[in-house]
Specification:
binds zinc ion; 10 helices; two-stranded antiparallel sheet; globular; mainly alpha; single chain
Length: 265
């Protein structure tokens, strides 16, 4: 099949799928979502259960409590903010949970269903509630903005253009969704390697995360300070968090600019 024909086939296939055009809370950005919330949540819960079955929950009671308290406070503040602003549907299907696991890895992640996991290694940097709120807000933002679904959707269209048109539609769709999800959220595997988000998603998660910090009463200036701290730490040792959340001066500058221009929330 010629390239233009493949593209036509891709568009036809996309039209077949339940294409929905989402709008990201806070930024208003439009996004293409080819998978339903229920598909994403089911995959997410399955992958999270696999991860937790191999992980060891932290024995550090104080740090565990701090992670849970910050998460609970941020979710409560976000829910009340969205309800007040007529966007209560934005958190539909999300089932938040906050865990601290025993691992020296400097890492944290959030499943698309709202399951947030901190590794003990990141607590070296996230050693105050404000710093925890930076990581928490950023991770929550990936879930709220449906970055996982969007990334899978973009990838499935790319696959479609690059290969046989039938693969992502019809009965194979479930298997394809599973496959794409596993590539993006391979947290069940020992390596715990997560595919990095795109720069656009990272910037958006920084901004939304900072907004949630503000709504919940945390110091938003802790956000750029945290990333600077992480970058300093990177020279001292390996940070897995930075490999999935690439950080640099540009990103920190964008975050500072977002703070400067932040609307009253
Ligand atoms: Zn991120």
């Amino acid at each position: 099949m010629g390239k233009s024909l493949k593209i036509v086939a891709a568009f036809a296939a996309v039209a077949f799928m339940a294409v929905s055009c989402g709008v990201v809370s806070f930024t208003g950005r439009k996004q293409m979502l080819l998978f339903s919330d229920s598909e994403i949540m089911a995959l997410s819960d399955q992958s999270y259960a696999e991860f937790m079955s191999t992980a060891t929950v932290s024995k550090d009671a104080a740090a565990t409590k701090m992670v849970r308290e910050v998460g609970t406070k941020m979710v409560a503040a976000l829910e009340s903010y969205l309800n007040k602003n007529g966007q209560s549907g934005a958190l539909k299907g999300l089932n938040w949970e906050f865990k601290l696991v025993n691992s020296d890895q400097v890492n944290a992640f959030c499943m698309p269903s709202g399951k947030i996991v901190f590794y003990e290694g990141i607590m070296k940097y996230a050693d105050t509630p404000d710093y925890i709120a930076v990581v928490m807000g950023h991770e929550m933002a990936h879930a709220i903005a449906k970055h996982g679904n969007e990334r899978m959707s973009q990838q499935s269209v790319m696959n479609l253009i690059g290969s046989a048109a039938g693969e992502i539609i019809g009965e194979k769709k479930g298997a394809v969704a599973q496959n794409l999800f596993n590539i993006g959220f391979a947290v069940g595997s020992q390596a715990g390697v997560l595919l990095p988000y795109s720069r656009k998603h990272e910037y958006e998660a920084d901004k939304i995360g900072m907004y949630i910090m503000d709504i919940a009463g945390y110091d938003v200036n802790a956000a750029p300070a945290f990333w600077e701290k992480m970058m300093d730490g990177k020279t001292a040792g390996k940070s897995d968090f930075l490999s999935t959340h690439p950080s640099d001066e540009k990103r920190i500058a964008a975050l500072k600019e977002a703070i400067r221009t932040k609307p009253e929330l």
